[in-house]
Structure formats: structure tokens, C-alpha cells
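User: Just a sanity check before I run the rest of the batch. Below are the C-alpha cells for the first item. I only need the designed sequence back.
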């Protein structure tokens, strides 16, 4: 409730029908969409009902180990990379994913949560000038300028506030690429969302060695 207190000087919990940013019940329901149902087999993964239409997994739910570039089983949520795309997996099966990765000799990586830095202003907590400078420095190492980040934050601002507060998620610690995709899919049409989806992936997969968007 820190956001409420910061903006309105109160931390009183709203009623279930209340929305700060005028989201309809239908939109709130869409904002909280599941990222699909994960099945882990010996040498493949399967994700049913993956919600993002531009993704290869939307069209091809069965993921052979042979097309997985790498896996980050410890991220929140765990992710695998297929070509230039991150696929978001079920955190509840983290231990099984570790076993899957070891069994199939997958490359295990630790990705930076670049979208987490971009989305910090929309957490249910304070975002100070010091926080802004800290995240700007971190993102600068990946080639993201202050102006570029400011433009992205402005693009996603209302939807992220709806996502975190109108749904009563009240996330205060961490937001990520999955969260921004869930938030923006309710705003954009098919073509707009596809363009945004690929932008999210380009940024999420930036490295310090290859830091151009």
C-alpha cells in the first residue's frame, strides 16, 4: 500500500470493486492472465495456453531440447531462450527445470533483469532520485540511454499502474518482462502488440557486449 500512501496520504485498502486507474472488470481479468501450463518431459517442454500470440510457443507448444539456446532456471520467473525470444516458465517447477537442464546438458545462464530496472517506478514503493540514477547507470551499461528509457516508461506507464494497482497485485519488490507483456497486451491491437513484443525481447536479451537496441 506504499503507493497509495505516497500519492494520496493513505494506506487504506480499497474495496474489490475499486480501481485507481479506471480499469474495467474485463480488463483486470485480462491483465492477470496465466502464462500457460508447463509440462516437463525427459527431453522436451510443453506449454499449453501460452498467452502471447507473437511467440513461437503460441503456435508450437512442444519445445524440443534441441532448439533451446539456454536456460535461466533461477530467474523470476525461470526462462528459456529460443532464437531471439525468451519463454517464461512456471516458477513452481523450478527444481524440475534444473533437473531438465542438467539431464539435457543445456547451457545455464544468469540473465540481468533489464526490464526490472525499467519498471522500478511502477512498484508499490518509493522511487527516489538516487534510484533513478542507480538504474540509469545499470541500463547504460547495456546501451540504454536515459531518453530511451524515459520514452519506454512513458509508453507503458498507465498500463503498468493498472497492472500493479487496479488488479491489487501491489508488487513492491520486482517486475519484469513478463509483467510488461501482460500489461500491454490489453492495450494494443495484434500488430501493435507484435511490434512491442519483439522490442521487449530485444531489450531483455541485451548484453554488455552487444548493447544496441
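Assistant: Here's the designed sequence for the first item:
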Amino acid at each position: 500500500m506504499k503507493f497509495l500512501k505516497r500519492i494520496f496520504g493513505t494506506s487504506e485498502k480499497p474495496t474489490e470493486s475499486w480501481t485507481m486507474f479506471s480499469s474495467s472488470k474485463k480488463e483486470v481479468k485480462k491483465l492477470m492472465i496465466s502464462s500457460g501450463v508447463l509440462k516437463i518431459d525427459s527431453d522436451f517442454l510443453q506449454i499449453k495456453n501460452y498467452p502471447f500470440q507473437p511467440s513461437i510457443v503460441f503456435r508450437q507448444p512442444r519445445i524440443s531440447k534441441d532448439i533451446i539456446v539456454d536456460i535461466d532456471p533461477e530467474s523470476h520467473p525461470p526462462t528459456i531462450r529460443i532464437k531471439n525470444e525468451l519463454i517464461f516458465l512456471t516458477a513452481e517447477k523450478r527444481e524440475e527445470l534444473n533437473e531438465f537442464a542438467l539431464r539435457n546438458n543445456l547451457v545455464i545462464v544468469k540473465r540481468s533483469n533489464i526490464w526490472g530496472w525499467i519498471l522500478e517506478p511502477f512498484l508499490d514503493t518509493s522511487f527516489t532520485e538516487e534510484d533513478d540514477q542507480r538504474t540509469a547507470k545499470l541500463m547504460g551499461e547495456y546501451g540504454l540511454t536515459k531518453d530511451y528509457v524515459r520514452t519506454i516508461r512513458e509508453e507503458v506507464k498507465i498500463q503498468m499502474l493498472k497492472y500493479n494497482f487496479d488488479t491489487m497485485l501491489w508488487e513492491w519488490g520486482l517486475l519484469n518482462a513478463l509483467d510488461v507483456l501482460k500489461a500491454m497486451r490489453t492495450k494494443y491491437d495484434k500488430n501493435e502488440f507484435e511490434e512491442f513484443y519483439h522490442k521487449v525481447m530485444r531489450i531483455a536479451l541485451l548484453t554488455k557486449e552487444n548493447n544496441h537496441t
